[in-house]
């Protein structure tokens, strides 16, 4: 009888351990990384050499490496770089990017694919023995960066009293990157009596181009657009909010142009201020910065097209 109870007890323990092992533990520091949507042209789609009696098939694999969802209206992938008189059937409006969730504390971001199918016109009557286009794949999508970390607030930094303080205001790296191609890369904390100023640096840490958010600018990202992105459109992010412990200090931030921060050589700096600090002692509190933007990335694939006869 005792052996029977012992067997049941061991079985219960084994089932419990198996259940716990199958449970996915949340990742504490998951909002990291410097990528948004990663693109990969599948090998041999297209192959490096094809004939003009074949179809041109291009398959692009997509993976959302960051922490923001993509695939909403306006997010698209385009194929260009070829003579439309030789290769036809490729939509100049691009192909809608599939919806892909951003990564979370419970797992990685979503996956998707985009395919292009074109028809190659005969080369023989053109008097050429080969055609060597350099295919260009362009992705255009909206993204958002959320950066949060603790900062030290000292309302009386120059006191001559000998008191113990829980913290000393200093620079904060904000993790370096936040699971997005644009990062809040550094925050300098400058205390003064009754107020604290923040020097916040925003950096394009990805491999693509950042430009103003909004559907109008996504349309201009299309390589076939009659009016593409201009100098006044690129290297801008919209500052959605800057808050201390949930209280917005965005109205104090400058220099902003209609809420937009300009990046020069991939970096932009804004200055914000927390005034009328109620506490009389130093303390730590969360600082949160949110910026939104559109992003463009490109891939190239050379192809040789030969006449079949």
Task: Please tell me about this protein's structure.
The chain is mainly beta. The strands form 4 sheets. Strands 4, 6, 8, 11, 12, 13, 14 and 16 form an 8-stranded antiparallel beta sheet that branches. A 4-stranded antiparallel beta sheet has the order 1-3-7-5, with no helix packed on it. It is built from 2 helices and 17 strands. The protein has 2 domains: 116 residues, Immunoglobulin-like; 127 residues. The longest helix has 21 residues. Helix content is 9%, strand content 41%.
Concise overview:
By secondary structure, the protein is mostly beta strands. Helices cover 9% and strands 41% of the residues. The protein has 2 domains: 37-142 and 297-306, Sandwich (Immunoglobulin-like); 145-158 and 166-208 and 223-292.
Task: Pick out its properties.
2 domains, disordered N terminus, four-stranded antiparallel β-sheet, mainly beta, single chain, 309 residues, 2 helices, Immunoglobulin-like
